[in-house]
Amino acid sequence: MVQTIPKTSTLTELIALRALESGPDVAYRFLPDGERETHALTFAELERKVRALAALLAGHTAPGDRALILAPDADDFIRGFLSCQYAGLVAVPVYPPLPFGGRQGTDTLSAIVRDCAPTVVIAAVPDEYRAFLLDGAPELGGLPWIDPRSAGEAEERAAEGFDPAKVKPEDVSFLQYTSGSTSLPKGVMVTHRALMHQEELLYQVGEFSRESVIVTWLPLFHDMGLIGNVLAGLYAGCQVVVMPPPAFIQRPARWLRAISKYRATVSGGPNFAYELSVRRVPPQDREGLDLSSLRIAFNGAEPVRAATLEAFTEAYRPHGLGDGVLFPCYGLAEVTLMATGSWIDAGPATLDVDLTALNDGRLVTGGDHRIVGSGEPRVHRRLEIVDPETFLAAPPGTVGEIWVAGPDVADGYWERPEETERTFGARIADTGEGPFLRTGDLGVLDGKELFVVGRLKDLIIVAGRNHYPQDVEAVAEAAHPLVRRGCSIAFGAEKAGAERLVVVAEIKPVHEAEELEDIRRAVRTAIASAHAVQPDEVILVAAGSVPKTSSGKLQRRACKAAWESGELAVVAVAEAGAAR
Fold first, then answer.
1. Angle, nearest 10°, between helix axes 74-87 and 11-22?
2. Pick from 245, 294, 484, 490: CA 20 to 30 A from residue 135's CA?
């Protein structure tokens, strides 16, 4: 491992350094509708606004207090988050739940509030939205609410003499609540030290400079959008162009046009973003695009699919996309963000493997199942593949749990010492080496390249054979054109004393009742052919009903729970016949 020294030891120092070294340069440009730029902030303007808001916060808090950030607007969020660093607060960025679709969003918000006990809320929301939040999370009612827009020019002048809090590298910068894809959200304690080491890793792996340009639509409350985009730009001293997630989801072409217009060098998102950019951007909307400025199009946060990368490359190579631009990576909140990354200009590493052998825990090349690498451990990272039962290092070419170490590994979970020790304190059984972070993910190394093959707890075992749910889901989605992409979930369920395979798939609207059985038959046949296992149930559900996290990850446990309780929005024959 190569140890590197970050530019600064805390995020608080970094904000001040950027204002000093890069004051007149643009830090952030804002595209609220995904197309029209409304305003920009220089590093100097940003620091003044952050200082003014921090001074306001200091009147309601003490260093070390938690500050909940509920700010749908990107400018509000960035100023709110950075002001917490100047005030010495522990920022708690959370997903602003939408006022429809039941209480799931506010239930999660309420659980986070009870877990971290904030003393202040940073929010810029209409009164009716605030009432909606208080109805779902009444714990927020007794707290002061600070609007980041309330720190105007007068406050900026008054705050010129405000001294930022004395923050140490070991202090917690923020709590990154986990996505909840496998369990209830937990607050990952990201220290200033871990954050600065992660930013240094991103800086080196991504070969950033002040001339770099980042374009992002990713949610800023989430680690990929916050650390990999907003703070990566701050660390490098380059500009970041920000649009809200709905602008991309509604029209994916906006993302590509912003890359073309602003000559972005870095951009990306989860695998589904690339799928949408192929399926929902027709050829006529690609005209005039020039993606030749891109050096990195990162792909992470969910399984990276070879078919998606191939389709995206084919669609956008005529528009300047370079062969080595696609950049698969792997990470998780517990390691602050990125654990492994590809090499610039190298392109994705792929392997054609024997699926049966892979399901048995062995990497055997030469088959017809293609998997995508997620890069290598870089800079200060150590990575081991470990047998999750014996805690011994797995033999080369063997699937095991991914364990990682490095100075950017978080300090643990907020107020959960037992879970922290279990997850962050692992050691190799025979050598005592450690501590390592247990990721809960399964992977295998081919040389130094990591291939992530699934989650330990999501593994499906039928008739003594292992099946990775994402592989089953990919087959289901390709089986019939009416199955929606990225919206299928496979899980194992005990039935009559044995594990059975259940597949839940969202479908597009159907007009004939017979189509439902056609879809089921196609999914069953495809899975049986590819995996030599017959699904016990294929359940077809309405669009938008498969449980996902706010960042788009499939929630397999939540889906299984909904199946067990009979709460899935199953498409009925009567509904299909009525849809004529």
1. 110
2. 245
Residues 62 and 145 in one domain: yes
Identify the domain containing residue 507 by its residue range: 460-578
Where a domain ends, among 166, 194, 222? 194
**How far apart, in whole angstroms, are the C-alpha atoms of residue 174 and residue 226?**
11
Question: Kindly report the CA angle at 123 between 120 and 124, in degrees rounded to 5?
Answer: 150
Distance (Å, whole) CA 330 – CA 551? 15
pTM attached to this predicted model:
0.86
In 369-424 the beta strands, taken as DSSP E runs, fall at 369-372, 382-386, 400-405
Q: 243 in a domain, yes or no?
A: no
194, 215, 242 - which closes a domain: 194
Q: In total, how many domains does the chain have?
A: 3
Say whether both 183 and 45 belong to one domain.
yes
Answer whether residue 554 is part of any domain.
yes
284 in any annotated domain: no
Spatial contact of 213 and 264, defined as CB atoms under 8 Å apart: yes
Do both 441 and 485 map to the same domain? no
Going residue by residue through the chain, which has 580 residues, state the pLDDT in tens, using 9 for 90 and above.
Answer: 555 678 899 999 999 999 999 999 999 999 999 999 999 999 999 999 999 999 999 999 999 999 999 999 999 999 999 999 999 999 999 988 876 545 556 778 888 999 999 999 999 889 998 998 998 889 999 999 999 998 888 888 888 889 999 999 999 999 999 865 445 679 999 999 999 999 999 999 999 999 999 999 999 998 899 999 999 999 999 999 999 999 998 999 999 999 999 999 999 999 889 989 998 999 999 999 999 999 999 998 778 889 899 999 999 999 999 999 999 999 999 999 999 999 999 999 999 999 889 988 999 999 988 999 999 999 999 999 999 999 999 999 999 999 999 999 999 999 999 999 999 999 999 999 999 999 999 999 999 999 999 888 788 888 667 788 888 998 999 999 999 988 999 998 877 666 789 999 999 988 777 889 999 999 999 998 888 788 999 999 998 888 887 667 788 888 988 898 888 888 864 343 333 2
